[in-house]
Structures are given as C-alpha cells and as structure tokens.
Design goal:
heterodimer; A: 417 residues; alpha/beta; seven-stranded parallel β-sheet; 18% helix; B: 422 residues; seven-stranded mixed β-sheet; 9 helices; 27% strand; globular
Chain lengths: 417, 422
C-alpha cells in the first residue's frame, strides 16, 4: 500500500475571539499547550499514530506561526515519497478574490488539490481540540457501514448542548455507533444528545457535490451547512460514538481547564501515553538544556520542560521551555509560556502568561482573597512588568504594552490596553 | 560564506576509554551520556559548529554504532548542506595494512585520502572525549598570526595531574621549545588538551616521514618542536577529560554548580535528540504532589514522585513514591521504584531499582573496588545498562553491577562494599 488512501484536511483557519490576547498574533491551533507543544499537535500526532500520511492544513488567520510550526512535517513523520503535509492558504485567481468564507468554502476552494490525490475517503478535522483518537477505527466503521458521511460524536449533558452541533444517533451498533437520525447545529433544544466533535469522514463524491451546492448559499460551515444539507438529502449518515477525553480550547477558561487536566498522578491528558509529538525545531526546543531545579526550589504537581531554571516555588502549574522563576517567587495554578522571566518574590495564582514576558521583582497577580472562584488572569506576550505591580484576578493585559501604560494596581477583571 | 580553503576538522573518536568501565561496555567513550541529554562528543561537535567550521571527519574504531546513529546526517550540528558535511571514517583494510589504528597519528595517516579529497589550508585535529567550550576560529587566527606550522591548545593544570598529559615549555613568544609526553617529574604545568591545528601540507609531510610515528604526542609533535614552529595556544576556560569515573561524576556535578562552570545552553551545545528511540524527544517532566527536587538537572520526560537531590537525570527516568536519589547520575529510562534509596550511583540506561532496594549504603567510601581499584575508589557505585536490582537488595560503596544483571544473578541480599557482580 504505497499510495495513501485517506486524505486528511485540518481546519486551522480560525482565531477564537474568546481566547483574546492569546490569539492576537497566532491562530487558535498554534496556541501553546502541554508545556512544550501546540494545540494542533494533538490532531497531527493522532494522524501520525493512525498511519494517515497525506495531510492538508487550511490556514488563514496569522498563519506564520503555524507554517513555522509545521516545518517540513518531519516531526510527525509526514515527509517521504508518498507522505506529506501541505499548508493551503487562501488565494486569488481569475474567478475569485475572497478570503476563505468558512470551513466548507476553504475546502471547496482546494478541490483541485483534493481531487489530485484521488482519496478513497476524506477526513475533516478541526485543529483545536485536545484528544487522542485512532482515526483508523473511524474509517473502518465508515466503510463497514458504507456511509456517505460518518460524524464522530461524544455524549454531552443537555444544558451544554446549545453550543454544539447535536446528533441523534440510534443504537444500530451499540456503543460503537449508529445511524444519524437527526442533526441540529447550535439549537436551543436539540433532539439528540451526541455532540459532533468536528471529526468527519466523507465519501469523496458526496463531499464534492455538497460543497458545490453550498457555493450558492450564504454560509459555508460544515456544521451549520454541509451536514444539515446532506441530512436533508437523505444521505447515509452514521455517528461514531467516542467516549475518550475531549478537551476544548475555545475560551480562556476551557483552555486553562484542559491544561489542569495534564496534572496529577493519573492525568486525563497523558502526553507520553498518547504519543504526542511536536516540532522540536520550532522555537529551538531541542536546544534547551535540562531543567535546573535550584537549592531552595520546590516543585509540586507540575509540568516542567527543558530550559527552565526554578529557584522559587511552583505548584500545580505548567512551565514551557526557557521559563526562569526567581528565588522566593511562588507560582500556583498557572500556565507560563515559553521564555518568561519571573523575578524574585513574585506571587502568581491562576494566570496564563504568553511568551517572552519579563516580570520584575515583587509582582503579584491574582493573589487577593476571593470568596467565590477566582477568574483567570491573562498577560499578553512581550510585556515588561514593572517591579511591585499588583494585578487582580481575571485581568487581561494586552501584548507589548508601552512602558507608560503600566499601572501600579489593576483591579480584578479589568483590561489593560 | 565559507572560504574555499576553510579548515577541515578531524575528530578522533575511536578511543576505548576503558577507565569508564561499564559505561563503555557497549559504546565508545565519546558516545557516553553526559549532562542528561548530551553525549560527550556533543561538546566537540558543537564547538566545531559554533566556530563556523563545516567539514568534519569523525574517526571511529571502538564500538562505533551508538556514535554513528548519534551523528546521523549531522543535521543537529548544521553539518548538512551543499558544501557541509560530517563523514564517519571507520578503519578499513588497505592493500597491505589490515590492522587497527595504532595511535592518533596512525589513524589520521590512514585517512589521508579524506584530507586529499578536501582542500584546506589547515587541519584541526580534536578529540571527542572532552567537556569544554572553545572557539577554534580564534585558535586558527592565532595559528596564522604566528605563522606556525603546528599550534597546540594548552592549559595550566595542577602539577600533580600533569603526568596524564603532554607537557610543553614555551618561550615568551608562545613558541613551544621543549616537550615531555606524560612526564613522571614535570618541569611545567602547561598541559596539551589534544587539540592541534596543522598546516595541511605540513601535516601531510609529517605523516609521510615514517609509518612508525604513530602518535601525535609521542612522535609527531616532539619532532616538529625540535625542527619547526610549534606554538601553544593558551586556553583559560573549563576543560575536563572525563576519562575516569571520578572525573566523569565531578564534571556532571559541575553542571549543578551555582557558578555555572558548565552551561551547555549558554555554550550552545547541540545534541541529536531523536536518535536512539527519541532519546531526548519527550514531553515535559511531571512532578507529583510529594516530589522533592533540589539542586538537580532534570531532563524532559521524567516522572518524579519521590526525592531527587544533587543529581542529574536523563529523559524518561521514573522516581516513585518514597524513593530517594542523591548525588547520582541516572541515564535514560531508569526506574527507581517505591522507597528505593540511591546514594552516589551512576546508572546506565534502562535499569530498574526494585522496591526498597538501597544502592550505595553505609559509610565505607574507602573500601575500594576489588576488581577495579583504579576505577572506583571514592564511593561511587556503578550499575550497568538494563540491570535489574531486586527489591530489598542492598548494595554497598564502590560496587559494580554488570549490564543486564537479572534478579537471579543476585545470590545474596547484600553486595558488600567494593564487590562486583559480573
């Protein structure tokens, strides 16, 4: 089997408005995750571990970080005579001048690329979820059912259902899957209890036709337009039931929660067991020396990568490569991205700090006493935080603030631009 | 942009390094793990890279497999490209000579075709055995400014150590006027680091003189000093020959030194993280609720539930609850099970310390190894590749546990100080 039969398309175009300062300069799929990786590494590693060798990534928003991250694809073994990963950016030609108008439009605009590969099935994935899945099993089920479309779904509680595409799946194959009877996108009161995970397996001709027809509509999304259209047309649609871990990263809170799932003795997200790989050339990961844990350091319940130097205390937190924590500082419940420098006697609780930010001594973030649960503070990248600055819980600080914009005290929940 | 005649580098990586005992049972000394994720040869290769030199020949001989897979294409040190390259030069049989390399000069002589195929003004000859940070570009500039035929990298060492080295006496110009190879009674404290810059034509002429001149320090240099211009290039930084277990342990501990005696990251030392089943390509290290880690160097991919003090851990080491690892060096994927205690241990990769095992027990650091009194005499206990230490086993000081030792190999519950399981 030399020529790959499956073509996988990863939807990585979006920004995710709610991630705010974390996605000012990068698409959601390129947001750092897990102490060394990026969100899209989960989809890429799952593909690698599923033996799927022909991949395209649809990218539109600030794609540089993603292009840089994918590199040659060698990190996921996607380089070789019949193996490859292509980034497909929006383009103009004699017929059209638009950006990608939606996920379905992005795929439509690259139909020539897809047809060139003559796939036997097309796998559409979203590049912004935290999960482990063997797509081979999905594809096998798709074929066994001779389905036109197979949608991977996970059961969710009714009260959370309104934000998802919800399917009603019968029990034709018990826990494995069944016929998709109805599908409703973001409905207030959906009939089904199975949410689509945006892992879709299509019979190519069915997809080509649906994308073609969709062009005369005014919305171009798989969940909102393509799946409902195929259901209306009475196509053979199946639901594949997934009951593993599924982490969303659409909002700061979801993102922080998924990070906390990396911690503990039996972590819900187990990077080693899942076989997650990243591109070690991106940001020079391979060039960091092992972490130096100092004489008076304390590190508990945390994830720490090479290149960190810890002289203070780190609890229940995640440190990306190149983070330095000064003596006397206490970092709790926080996610600190690449190359942050934290001075002496700082105290952080429940915060996310984007790359390259430098904190002088005695900075406090989110340490006030709160009766309810603390909100998550987020500090954008490339900031220089002056000594003694005090930021309340839940604050948001824009990237690269001018020095004169800093304030001594920022109340909880405020935004500093 | 490379000059067309840029210096070519020969890296001598064939030595056995037998004083490293078990650590060189399956690999050559330059391939021995150092500082968690590195191998000793990474320091020389990275110095070459950071000096802007791009053509390297690596002379191998003894157990070269790990070394060859580690060097790979040379991509880790940026040696891939149109005019760049790192070539492995193994011993080979010729029309007459079919024996192994007899010495450093002999090894270079048998690779004269490599030198002839790569035009260069100078040849830099290095050993792959040392931990240091040095700019060969500056040494080449020194060599050319002195119009030297040969330049030798030299540094001041304590008098009592000079007997291990070639020793040179220089005039006020820096020219070497007298030379003693491994002197018993030294006249100087200036030691050769085994780093030479030769004018290429001078090197070819020297090697052509006599096939009996098999060693640089013993034959080639003394002749050159007597007859031509040999200069000492003074080096003042950190440099260690980690050829003994004690020196190897001390240099690893220098990584933890607050003064930053060795800073692989600052020195821009590169390694091949992907060779040998993703040796260093791992996720972040997980510290659990009862972890206690002080003054240690911890590679990615470890799981730490117990205590780690003054130690260096390679990727994939697991330290379970209640276990204590102190003053030790653990290679990749070692497993220290519940309540096991390690004190002054160097363990090769993939070993397992069973529950409640204690390795390095007691205070008899002075009961030296019976089999290898010159290898283990300060209390360090060595555990070989893939050895399995049974639960509750006690192992004393200066002990050796052979590679692949299985539980059944341990016939007593206590391996006494200075004893070896081999």
């Amino acid at each position: 089997m030399l020529r790959p039969t499956t073509l996988a398309m990863i939807l990585a175009g979006g920004r995710a408005e709610e991630l705010n300062v974390l996605t000012y300069y990068r698409p959601k799929a390129a947001v750092p995750f897990g102490g060394f990786a990026r969100v899209i590494d989960f989809a890429l590693s799952n593909l690698m571990n599923s033996g799927i060798e022909q991949i395209a990534i649809l990218s539109q928003y600030r794609s540089y970080s993603l292009i840089n991250h994918i590199g040659t694809g060698a990190a996921w073994d996607m380089i070789g005579r019949y193996r490859g990963v292509s980034i497909l950016p929006p383009f103009i030609d004699s017929e059209q001048q638009d950006w990608y108008r939606g996920s379905a439009d992005a795929v439509y605009k690259n139909l020539d690329f897809i047809q060139y590969h003559r796939p036997e099935e097309i796998l559409i994935l979203s590049g912004d979820h935290i999960y482990q899945m063997d797509y081979r099993d999905v594809i096998a089920y798709h074929h066994r059912k001779n389905a036109d479309l197979t949608v991977v779904c996970k059961r969710v509680e009714k009260q959370r259902a309104s934000r998802f595409g919800m399917a009603h799946i019968d029990d034709e194959d018990g826990d494995r899957g069944g016929k998709m009877v109805t599908y409703q996108e973001k409905s207030e009161n959906p009939e089904g209890e199975w949410s689509s995970l945006t892992v879709l397996c299509f019979k190519p001709e069915i997809l080509y036709k649906a994308l073609e027809e969709n062009q005369s509509d005014d919305s171009f999304e798989f969940g909102h337009d393509i799946i409902p259209k195929l259901m209306d047309q009475g196509c053979r649609a199946y639901g594949y039931k997934f009951d593993g871990y599924w982490g969303y990263t659409r909002t700061v809170e979801e993102y922080w929660n998924a990070n906390m799932d990396l911690l503990g003795d039996q972590p819900l997200v187990d990077l080693e067991r899942w076989g997650i790989r990243t591109n070690l050339d991106h940001r020079g990961l391979r060039d960091y020396q092992p972490a130096l844990i100092g004489r008076n350091a304390e590190v508990l319940d945390s994830l720490i990568y090479n290149g960190c130097v810890v002289e203070g205390t780190v609890r229940n937190s995640i440190l990306f490569p190149g983070v330095h924590i000064g003596a006397g500082s206490v970092i709790e419940n926080s996610v600190i991205f690449f190359s942050n420098r934290i001075g002496k006697d700082c105290r952080f609780d429940k915060m996310i700090s984007d790359v390259n930010t430098v904190y002088a001594d005695n900075v406090e973030i989110g340490i006030e006493h709160v009766d309810k649960e603390k909100q998550i503070a987020v500090v954008g990248w490339n900031n220089r935080v002056p000594a003694g600055t005090r930021l309340g819980h839940g604050v948001t600080v824009s990237p690269q603030l001018q020095p004169d914009k800093w304030v001594e005290v920022l109340e909880a929940g405020r935004v500093l631009r | 942009m490379r000059k067309p005649d840029e210096a070519i580098v020969l890296l001598l990586a064939g030595g056995v390094g037998s004083r490293l005992n078990l650590l060189v049972e399956k690999r050559a000394k330059p391939a021995v793990t150092f500082g968690g994720i590195y191998r000793i040869i990474d320091f020389s290769l990275s110095n070459v890279m950071n000096s802007g030199l791009t053509r390297v020949g690596v002379l191998t001989q003894y157990k070269p497999l790990s070394l060859m897979s580690h060097i790979g294409t040379g991509e880790a040190w940026d040696f891939t490209g149109r005019s760049r390259g790192v070539k492995i030069l193994p011993p080979r049989t010729g029309s007459k000579d079919s024996d192994w390399y007899k010495g450093t000069a002999d090894a270079v002589r048998r690779n004269i075709d490599f030198l002839e195929a790569n035009k260069a003004e100078e040849v830099v000859i290095l050993s792959g055995d040392h931990i240091y940070h040095m700019d060969f570009d500056a040494m080449l500039a020194f060599h050319n400014s002195k119009k030297a035929d040969v330049t030798v990298g030299m540094m001041v060492v304590p008098k009592e150590q000079i007997h291990q080295f070639g020793a040179g006496i220089t005039n006020k110009d820096g020219r070497i006027v007298d030379w003693e190879e491994k002197p018993e009674v030294p006249k100087t404290n200036l030691a050769s680091m085994g780093i030479y810059v030769f004018n290429r034509d001078y090197l070819l002429a020297s090697l052509a003189r006599s096939k009996d001149e098999i060693d640089f320090g013993m034959h080639i240099l003394p002749w050159a000093i007597d007859n031509d211009n040999v200069f000492a290039y003074p080096f003042y930084g950190y440099w260690r020959d980690v050829g003994t277990i004690q020196a190897y342990w001390e240099a690893n501990m220098d990584l933890l030194n607050q003064k930053g005696m060795i800073s692989p990251e600052k020195w821009q030392i590169r390694t091949n993280v992907e060779a040998e089943e993703r040796r260093a390509d791992r996720p972040a290290t997980r510290y659990l609720a009862a972890a206690k880690v002080r003054n240690s160097l911890i590679s990615a991919g470890c799981v730490i539930k117990g205590t780690v003090l003054n130690s260096v851990l390679s990727p994939g080491v697991v330290v379970e609850e209640g276990a204590v690892v102190k003053d030790s060096i653990l290679f990749r994927d070692c497993r220290v099970e519940k309540n096991a205690q390690l004190d002054l241990v160097i363990s090769d990769k993939l070993t397992r310390f069973g529950e409640n095992a204690a390795v390095g027990v007691g205070e008899h650091h002075d009961i030296i190894s019976r089999l290898y009194p010159k290898h283990l005499y300060t209390g360090i206990t060595l555990v070989g590749d893939s050895a399995e230490i049974p639960a509750n086993m006690k192992i004393g000081r200066n002990c050796i546990v052979k590679c692949n030792a299985s539980e059944a190999d341990f016939t007593t519950p206590f391996l006494q100080d200075g004893e070896s399981l081999s």
